[in-house]
Amino acid sequence: MLRSIIEAHHGRTGRAAAVPYPEPAMAILPIIITGNPVLHTPAKPVTVFDDELRTLVDDMYETMLAAPGVGLAGPQVGVPLRIFVYNYPDDEGNERRGVAINPELWISPSPVDEPDEDADSEGCLSVPGERFPLVRSQKALLRAVDLDQKPFEIEAEGWFARIFQHEFDHLNGVLYVDRLDLVYGRRAAKAVRRAGWGTPGNSWTPGIDDLEG
Ligand SMILES: [Zn+2]
Protein backbone atom coordinates (compact mmCIF):
# COMPACT_ATOMS: atom_id res chain seq x y z
CA MET A 1 0.00 0.00 0.00
CA LEU A 2 2.80 2.42 0.88
CA ARG A 3 4.52 1.74 -2.40
CA SER A 4 1.41 2.74 -4.32
CA ILE A 5 1.08 5.89 -2.22
CA ILE A 6 4.70 6.75 -3.01
CA GLU A 7 4.16 6.20 -6.70
CA ALA A 8 0.92 8.17 -6.71
CA HIS A 9 2.79 11.21 -5.45
CA HIS A 10 5.47 11.12 -8.07
CA GLY A 11 4.91 12.96 -11.27
CA ARG A 12 6.88 13.10 -14.45
CA THR A 13 10.32 13.30 -12.83
CA GLY A 14 9.59 10.68 -10.14
CA ARG A 15 11.63 7.53 -10.42
CA ALA A 16 9.74 5.32 -7.99
CA ALA A 17 8.07 3.47 -10.85
CA ALA A 18 11.51 2.46 -12.16
CA VAL A 19 12.39 0.56 -8.98
CA PRO A 20 12.50 -3.15 -9.91
CA TYR A 21 9.99 -5.40 -8.21
CA PRO A 22 10.58 -7.31 -5.95
CA GLU A 23 12.33 -4.44 -4.23
CA PRO A 24 15.90 -4.68 -2.97
CA ALA A 25 16.34 -4.88 0.80
CA MET A 26 16.97 -1.14 1.00
CA ALA A 27 16.15 1.50 -1.50
CA ILE A 28 16.92 5.14 -1.97
CA LEU A 29 13.61 6.89 -2.47
CA PRO A 30 13.03 9.96 -4.61
CA ILE A 31 12.65 13.10 -2.50
CA ILE A 32 9.65 15.28 -3.29
CA ILE A 33 10.42 18.93 -4.04
CA THR A 34 8.29 21.84 -2.80
CA GLY A 35 5.05 22.38 -4.70
CA ASN A 36 3.61 18.89 -4.32
CA PRO A 37 0.47 18.92 -2.10
CA VAL A 38 1.87 16.04 -0.02
CA LEU A 39 4.42 18.50 1.42
CA HIS A 40 1.84 21.15 2.16
CA THR A 41 -0.89 19.05 3.78
CA PRO A 42 -0.93 17.72 7.37
CA ALA A 43 0.05 14.04 7.50
CA LYS A 44 -2.08 11.32 9.11
CA PRO A 45 -1.19 9.23 12.16
CA VAL A 46 0.42 5.84 11.60
CA THR A 47 -2.07 3.11 12.57
CA VAL A 48 -0.54 0.00 11.01
CA PHE A 49 2.83 -1.15 12.40
CA ASP A 50 3.86 -3.90 10.01
CA ASP A 51 6.79 -5.04 7.89
CA GLU A 52 5.90 -2.50 5.25
CA LEU A 53 6.40 0.28 7.79
CA ARG A 54 9.79 -1.24 8.75
CA THR A 55 10.81 -1.28 5.11
CA LEU A 56 9.71 2.33 4.74
CA VAL A 57 11.85 3.34 7.73
CA ASP A 58 14.87 1.41 6.36
CA ASP A 59 14.45 3.18 3.04
CA MET A 60 14.03 6.56 4.73
CA TYR A 61 17.32 6.05 6.65
CA GLU A 62 19.04 5.03 3.46
CA THR A 63 17.67 8.02 1.59
CA MET A 64 18.52 10.47 4.39
CA LEU A 65 22.12 9.20 4.63
CA ALA A 66 22.58 9.27 0.87
CA ALA A 67 21.20 12.81 0.47
CA PRO A 68 22.96 13.55 2.86
CA GLY A 69 20.57 14.96 5.43
CA VAL A 70 20.08 15.03 9.19
CA GLY A 71 16.36 14.35 9.03
CA LEU A 72 13.68 13.14 6.65
CA ALA A 73 9.90 13.09 7.07
CA GLY A 74 7.34 10.77 5.48
CA PRO A 75 5.74 13.44 3.26
CA GLN A 76 9.16 14.12 1.72
CA VAL A 77 9.15 10.65 0.19
CA GLY A 78 5.49 10.91 -0.74
CA VAL A 79 4.12 9.11 2.31
CA PRO A 80 1.50 11.27 4.07
CA LEU A 81 2.07 9.71 7.50
CA ARG A 82 3.31 11.16 10.81
CA ILE A 83 6.77 9.66 10.81
CA PHE A 84 10.30 11.01 10.55
CA VAL A 85 13.86 9.76 10.86
CA TYR A 86 16.82 11.74 12.16
CA ASN A 87 20.56 11.30 12.32
CA TYR A 88 22.60 13.80 14.26
CA PRO A 89 25.69 12.86 16.27
CA ASP A 90 26.14 14.46 19.72
CA ASP A 91 29.05 16.75 20.63
CA GLU A 92 31.27 13.73 21.40
CA GLY A 93 30.55 12.23 17.98
CA ASN A 94 28.30 9.48 19.34
CA GLU A 95 25.67 8.35 16.89
CA ARG A 96 22.21 9.68 17.58
CA ARG A 97 19.69 8.41 15.10
CA GLY A 98 16.18 7.11 15.26
CA VAL A 99 12.64 7.11 14.03
CA ALA A 100 9.79 9.08 15.57
CA ILE A 101 6.28 7.86 14.83
CA ASN A 102 3.17 9.87 15.72
CA PRO A 103 5.33 12.43 17.55
CA GLU A 104 4.33 15.27 19.80
CA LEU A 105 6.68 18.20 20.33
CA TRP A 106 6.97 20.79 23.05
CA ILE A 107 9.29 23.72 22.53
CA SER A 108 10.70 26.54 24.63
CA PRO A 109 9.61 30.07 23.66
CA SER A 110 11.24 31.15 20.41
CA PRO A 111 13.82 33.94 20.80
CA VAL A 112 12.85 37.26 19.22
CA ASP A 113 16.36 37.78 17.80
CA GLU A 114 17.08 38.60 14.18
CA PRO A 115 18.13 35.44 12.32
CA ASP A 116 21.90 35.01 12.02
CA GLU A 117 23.01 34.16 8.48
CA ASP A 118 25.60 31.69 9.73
CA ALA A 119 24.35 30.27 13.00
CA ASP A 120 20.69 29.97 11.96
CA SER A 121 21.13 28.89 8.36
CA GLU A 122 18.72 26.03 7.74
CA GLY A 123 18.16 23.81 4.71
CA CYS A 124 15.64 21.22 3.55
CA LEU A 125 15.95 18.27 1.19
CA SER A 126 12.64 19.35 -0.36
CA VAL A 127 14.14 22.74 -1.26
CA PRO A 128 17.49 21.26 -2.28
CA GLY A 129 20.66 23.32 -2.49
CA GLU A 130 19.18 26.35 -0.72
CA ARG A 131 19.77 27.64 2.82
CA PHE A 132 18.10 30.49 4.65
CA PRO A 133 18.38 31.63 8.26
CA LEU A 134 15.52 30.99 10.65
CA VAL A 135 15.37 31.53 14.40
CA ARG A 136 14.14 28.41 16.23
CA SER A 137 13.46 27.50 19.83
CA GLN A 138 16.57 26.43 21.70
CA LYS A 139 14.95 23.48 23.46
CA ALA A 140 12.49 20.83 22.38
CA LEU A 141 10.92 17.80 24.01
CA LEU A 142 9.97 15.04 21.59
CA ARG A 143 7.53 12.30 22.54
CA ALA A 144 6.82 9.57 20.03
CA VAL A 145 6.66 5.81 19.58
CA ASP A 146 9.14 3.57 17.78
CA LEU A 147 8.51 0.76 15.29
CA ASP A 148 7.44 -1.52 18.16
CA GLN A 149 4.97 1.14 19.32
CA LYS A 150 7.13 1.69 22.39
CA PRO A 151 6.83 5.28 23.65
CA PHE A 152 10.02 7.27 24.17
CA GLU A 153 10.98 10.85 24.77
CA ILE A 154 14.06 12.90 23.94
CA GLU A 155 15.05 16.29 25.28
CA ALA A 156 16.99 18.17 22.64
CA GLU A 157 18.90 21.44 22.56
CA GLY A 158 20.42 23.64 19.91
CA TRP A 159 20.72 22.15 16.45
CA PHE A 160 19.22 18.82 17.57
CA ALA A 161 16.14 20.71 18.80
CA ARG A 162 16.06 22.53 15.48
CA ILE A 163 15.97 19.23 13.58
CA PHE A 164 12.99 18.05 15.60
CA GLN A 165 11.15 21.32 14.96
CA HIS A 166 11.93 21.14 11.24
CA GLU A 167 10.80 17.51 10.88
CA PHE A 168 7.74 18.00 13.07
CA ASP A 169 6.73 20.93 10.86
CA HIS A 170 6.86 18.60 7.83
CA LEU A 171 4.17 16.44 9.45
CA ASN A 172 1.95 19.50 9.66
CA GLY A 173 2.49 20.46 6.03
CA VAL A 174 4.89 23.29 6.90
CA LEU A 175 8.29 23.86 5.29
CA TYR A 176 10.97 25.99 6.93
CA VAL A 177 10.73 28.42 4.02
CA ASP A 178 7.11 29.07 5.09
CA ARG A 179 8.47 30.41 8.39
CA LEU A 180 11.15 32.76 7.09
CA ASP A 181 10.91 36.47 7.78
CA LEU A 182 9.92 38.80 4.95
CA VAL A 183 13.32 39.39 3.35
CA TYR A 184 14.48 35.78 3.37
CA GLY A 185 11.00 34.57 2.50
CA ARG A 186 11.12 36.64 -0.68
CA ARG A 187 14.56 35.29 -1.54
CA ALA A 188 13.36 31.74 -1.00
CA ALA A 189 10.28 32.28 -3.17
CA LYS A 190 12.50 33.66 -5.89
CA ALA A 191 14.89 30.69 -5.68
CA VAL A 192 11.96 28.27 -5.90
CA ARG A 193 10.57 30.08 -8.95
CA ARG A 194 13.97 30.23 -10.62
CA ALA A 195 14.43 26.49 -10.17
CA GLY A 196 11.04 25.84 -11.74
CA TRP A 197 9.64 24.35 -8.53
CA GLY A 198 6.50 25.25 -6.63
CA THR A 199 4.29 22.99 -8.74
CA PRO A 200 3.64 19.28 -8.28
CA GLY A 201 5.74 16.71 -10.11
CA ASN A 202 9.30 17.57 -9.08
CA SER A 203 11.55 15.21 -7.19
CA TRP A 204 15.20 14.28 -6.99
CA THR A 205 17.00 11.10 -6.10
CA PRO A 206 20.18 11.11 -3.96
CA GLY A 207 23.00 9.39 -5.79
CA ILE A 208 21.38 10.12 -9.15
CA ASP A 209 20.63 13.83 -9.12
CA ASP A 210 23.22 16.10 -7.55
CA LEU A 211 21.09 18.82 -5.95
CA GLU A 212 22.43 19.09 -2.42
CA GLY A 213 26.07 19.70 -3.31
ZN1 LIG B 1 12.85 19.51 5.37
Strand content: 15-25%
Note the gap between the termini: 33 Å
Q: What is the CATH first-level class name?
A: Alpha Beta
H-E string: HEHEEEEEEEHHE
Helix content, binned percent: 10-25%
Bulk shape: globular
| Count of spatially separate domains | 1
What's the pLDDT, averaged over the residues?
90
| CATH topology assignment | Peptide Deformylase
In the CATH hierarchy, the architecture is Alpha-Beta Complex
In CATH, the homologous superfamily goes by the name Peptide deformylase
SS elements, strand count: 9
Largest sheet: 5 strands, antiparallel
**pLDDT < 50 stretches:** 11-15
Q: Rg from C-alpha positions?
A: 16 Å
SS element count, helices:
4
Q: Which class of secondary structure composition applies to the elements?
A: alpha+beta
Describe the structure concisely:
With 213 residues, this protein is α+β, with helices and mostly antiparallel strands. The protein is 23% helix and 20% strand. A hairpin with a 7-residue loop joins strand 5 and strand 6.
